[in-house]
Amino acid sequence: MSNGRLIGRKENLWSRIKRVALTDVGALMRGLNAEDLEKMEQVLIEADFGVASTVELTQALEDEVRRGKLKTEGDLRTALESRLSAMLDGAQNPGAIARAAEGPTVILLVGVNGTGKTTSAAKLARRLQREGRKVLLAAADTYRAGAIAQLQVWADRLGLPCVAGAPGGDPAAVAFDAIDAAVSRGLDTVVVDTAGRLHTQEGLMDELRKLVRVIGRRLPGAPHETLLVLDGTVGQNAVQQGRLFVQAVNPTGIIVTKLDGSARGGAVTALRRELGLPIRFLGVGETVEDLQPFDAKRFAQHLLSEVPVGAS
Ligand SMILES: Nc1nc2c(ncn2[C@@H]2O[C@H](COP(=O)(O)OP(=O)(O)OP(=O)(O)O)[C@@H](O)[C@H]2O)c(=O)[nH]1
Ligand SMILES: [Mg+2]
Fold this sequence. Notes:
Blueprint: H1 3-10, H2 13-21, H3 27-30, H4 34-46, H5 51-66, H6 73-88, E1 105-110, H7 117-130, E2 135-140, H8 147-158, E3 162-164, H9 171-185, E4 189-194, H10 201-218, E5 225-231, H11 236-249, E6 253-257, H12 266-275, E7 279-283, E8 291-293, H13 296-305
Parallel strand pairs: 1-4, 1-5, 2-3, 2-4, 5-6, 6-7
Antiparallel strand pairs: 7-8
Helix pairs in contact: 2-4, 4-5, 5-6, 6-13, 7-8, 9-10, 10-11, 11-12
The structure holds guanosine-5'-triphosphate and magnesium ion.
Residues 117-118, 141, 147, 193 line the site of magnesium ion.
């Protein structure tokens, strides 16, 4: 890692763009040249935007400069922010969780190990509980030792019922039982936590496909939401992981976690662009309150200024 990058990490994105790519004050008047653009691309790539988003952004800006639309640094910043916001925008109302027309609503959380599925299940349950829904948690990670107990602890804290099977048991059976329990107890929402790791990745995808199939057979139209939980600190790796889940279980949206602390949010743009799914929530800490519905405009502002996402 170069020293420049280390310095860059502490500096906000906009000052980095200015320092690296807009050194020549005449650049905006004469039009951005290949070198300016290359430098801007470099800054965005280093900030985890990914190649596709970076190229799209810089080309759009170059075009606007060429047409004489951006004359000052302020114009450029505003244009970048609004482009980013448009790229990030995905859902009409990212925080609105679907509701089944009939019977319980089933929400599935999927993702690789350690991304924050179980924590996000608890956060989401808390949010839905606050909206007046009657929530039941389902511990369908039967693979990892301790996973069931972890979800049960959250359920106890939130005062919510939790359905779990035996360790090593069939996760589809847990989901099936959870739906039955919700129906018989008159609960309207089932949040299903799943495993992040099995013996193999293909094994995990097969298990998730089966889980979705069984849930759909028990309750036509379910799962009503499948939320893909991705770790915002792992950059392009999250894009790679995400692709597997998109193919296997057709998620309805993304929760990007761990965007508190020092995480840079460029990866969120790459995820939105390359997975083609709406960003629905951001995880911004380890407590049940640390879940924010995604706001594209606000996030674009945060990205440029690099105020921590959790702070308002
Ligand atoms: N800082 C921060 N930590 C988080 C966030 N979400 C989850 N974590 C932490 O990340 C770790 C893993 O979270 P889990 O919810 O257990 O992740 P998981 O995806 O269920 O993991 P597996 O069950 O092993 O697949 C825990 O220490 C969480 O407290 C977040 O938004 N911010
Ligand atoms: Mg878990």
